[in-house]
Amino acid sequence: MALVSCKECGTLNSSEAENCLSCEYPIKGRSKTNLVKWFALLLALMLVIPLAFYTIQTLSTQTNVQPSVPPAK
Ligand SMILES: [Zn+2]
Prior knowledge:
Layout: E1 3-5, E2 12-14, H1 29-65
Antiparallel strand pairs: 1-2
This protein binds zinc ion (ZN).
């Protein structure tokens, strides 16, 4: 837990607080946190999507290469 000073009045607030305790001004770090969150989400998507395509491609290739299982009878 860290203390951040309010951009408006300079009051020290908890970094977990959404608004300043003194003047209700939104804590500056919040929009930054949102930006980081969006960036992380974008990065995760950029990693997950190719990985998903690769997995699907590998699976379909494997099923194509392998002969279909002959019936037991
Ligand atoms: Zn304030």
